[in-house]
Design a protein that fits this description.
mainly alpha, two-stranded antiparallel sheet, 75% helix, globular
Length: 250
């Protein structure tokens, strides 16, 4: 029987929930610290390095057979790649509308707070804004979708699925994804001090959990991790658009 792990790692780990938990602790804790630090200094460049590490994790630990098992292969249903894109954009816009309705342009609005890290100059002209938006959208559609989906919906999910099945595994990888995103919004750096926003955090974390389930559904329906990546990429595109246009316009 073929092994999911490369020979070196198979002598140390079994491809099961313990390995998945090891990966979560190994990479998610530094990820949280780096995002919080990035919020404090107003620069997320170090977070990009963590996304890269998450992206290469399956290639470091898994055999070719293992990488195929986690979905690194051609889609079996290309129609779902289109559906995945629509789902991602739609959910990001719904989340914008919810935040705008509940919290307006305050720092308790998740998109508004996250938008501060983009360092968009006040009074920026439309051409310059379009340029910065395009660059930000490209980064948002590549680094985190590839890194996080190969990690959470890929190697972490499959590790847990080997022990407890896909349904329960999707709840765990989605929970880990949602909790990690408290560092993006929830525990915030505002007026030079840290603050925890209770109700907005609950809404944000629940939203991240739901969208994670959608990412997994797109992976499952498309037959490839590419479905999850495209849905995630589309979500980030919609979020970036909402930050640069409706929110700035306010």
């Amino acid at each position: 029987m073929e092994n999911n792990l490369k020979p070196f790692w198979s002598n140390i780990f079994d491809f099961n929930w313990k390995f998945g938990l090891f990966l979560i602790l190994l990479l998610c804790i530094p990820r949280i610290v780096l995002v919080l630090y990035g919020n404090e200094i107003g620069n997320m460049q170090f977070v990009g390095i963590m996304m890269l590490i998450m992206a290469i994790a399956p290639f470091v630990f898994l055999s070719k057979y293992g990488r195929e098992r986690i979905g690194i292969k051609k889609p079996t249903n290309n129609r779902w790649l289109i559906i995945a894109f629509i789902i991602g954009v739609a959910f990001s816009i719904m989340l914008y509308l919810l935040g705008d309705t509940l919290y307006g342009n305050s720092y308790e609005n998740w998109y508004n707070y996250i938008g501060k890290s983009y360092n968009i100059p006040k009074g920026i002209d439309e051409q310059s804004k379009l340029t910065i938006f395009s660059i930000s959208a490209f980064i948002g559609m590549t680094f985190s979708p590839i890194g996080e989906e190969l990690f959470f919906r890929g190697i972490v999910h499959s590790s847990f699925a080997n022990s407890i099945g896909n349904r329960k595994a999707s709840l765990i990888d989605s929970s880990a994804f949602a909790i990690v995103h408290i560092s993006h919004f929830g525990l915030i750096f505002h007026n030079q001090q840290w603050e925890f926003l209770y109700l907005p955090t609950v809404i944000w974390v629940l939203s991240m959990f739901i969208v994670s389930i959608l990412f997994y559904a797109c992976r499952k329906r498309s037959g490839s991790i590419l479905g999850a990546i495209i849905c995630h990429s589309a979500f980030n595109l919609g979020m970036t658009y909402c930050i640069f246009y409706p929110i700035i316009a306010n």
